[in-house]
Design a protein that fits this description.
alpha/beta; Arc Repressor Mutant, subunit A; Glutaredoxin; 5-stranded mixed sheet
């Protein structure tokens, strides 16, 4: 597959030109791209040229596409030789492209390859009746249903050597064939039909309410957890003094008085009450004696203070006598420098 070359000159046509219908189609493809980006249409135009030429690309068709897009011939040749979807040599009426990459190879592509080689010969050559040619190609994108082949524009999947041989017989005879999986598989479902999501209530809407309730419950649970976490954070950052008795009834001890005892049928006055009363009487007497003694002391203190603070008998208009200076005898005049 690495060495892709043009067909020999003996097999190349002398000229190529799009039909009027295909030329109009090519013009529409080119107009899909902005000015200066016409080269982006190279693959669609090569594909249409191959289709018009019977399933393969001659050199003149590659050059015609290059001229239509204003590209160098070598640039378009590079594209044509890179992709195996472009056949560079004449092909049979039914061109078989066998996928040989890992998924198909693991599922039996080698057995298909051996069958094709035994029936048609080497790849790249047309069978003697002109009906078939084949080529091993890279991944065709149907790995789920491997092994598979592409014949002209259609895919045939889940093949075995026997089923592929029978398919080729039907094509050669012009009989109708089944496109796609050859074992009854639908699309890319598991063999034998779907085995998941088979409960009809998943699709008739009856479970919608249950699913919605489930998500609402989860949302409420998450909200509660967020609130609890927020409360814990506030308590950790702003602790408040505990109040054990907050909201609780306060219990006071039962009153033990003569009236309650009498109502309960007990002796109103207990011996201990009499003893307590005697003790309180003695305490009162002692307190009275102490109070009288304290009053006597206070009275004597007040009398002494009154005597010490007796007012002078001198008239208020006369100044008080000067004190006797130290060392002077009573009756001697006080020097003027000693006076106040």
């Amino acid at each position: 597959m690495a060495n892709r070359r043009l067909a020999p000159a003996s097999e190349q046509p002398q000229h190529f030109a799009f039909s009027s219908e295909n030329a109009e189609w090519a013009k529409g493809q080119i107009e899909k791209y902005p000015e200066g980006r016409q080269a982006s249409a190279v693959i669609p135009l090569l594909w249409k040229a191959q289709e018009q030429n019977g399933g393969w690309l001659p050199q003149k068709a590659i050059e015609a596409v290059a001229d239509e897009l204003g590209m160098p011939h070598i640039r378009v040749l590079e594209v044509a030789t890179f992709y195996t979807m472009f056949a560079l040599e004449p092909v049979g009426r039914f061109w078989i492209q066998l996928c040989g990459t890992v998924p198909c190879d693991s599922c039996g592509a080698r057995e298909l390859k051996d069958m094709l080689q035994g029936r048609l010969g080497a790849p790249g050559h047309v069978s003697a009746d002109g009906n078939f040619s084949w080529l091993e190609v890279e991944c065709l994108g149907a790995c789920c249903n491997a092994p598979m082949v592409q014949i002209n524009q259609d895919y045939y999947e889940d093949l075995t050597p026997h089923s592929l041989n029978a398919l080729m017989d039907d094509l050669a005879a012009g009989r109708p064939v089944k496109i796609g999986s050859q074992v009854g598989r639908t699309s890319s479902e598991p063999k034998g039909g779907a085995d998941t999501l088979t409960d009809a209530t998943l699709f008739d809407g009856s479970r919608v309410g249950a699913w919605r309730k489930r998500f609402e419950d989860k949302a409420d649970e998450a909200k509660g957890q967020d609130e609890a976490a927020s409360s814990e954070q506030r308590a950790a950052s702003d602790p408040k003094p505990a109040k054990p008795d907050a909201g609780r009834a306060e219990h006071t001890p039962k009153t033990d008085a003569p009236a309650q005892r009498n109502a309960a049928g007990e002796t109103p006055v207990k011996p201990s009450d009499t003893a307590d009363a005697a003790d309180r009487t003695d305490s009162s007497a002692k307190s009275t004696s102490k109070s009288e003694s304290a009053a006597t002391v206070v009275a004597e203190a007040e009398a002494a203070g009154a005597e010490a603070g007796t007012q002078s008998s001198l008239p208020r208009s006369e100044p008080p006598p000067q004190p006797i200076a130290s060392g002077a005898t009573e009756g001697e005049p006080v020097p003027s420098d000693k006076r106040n």
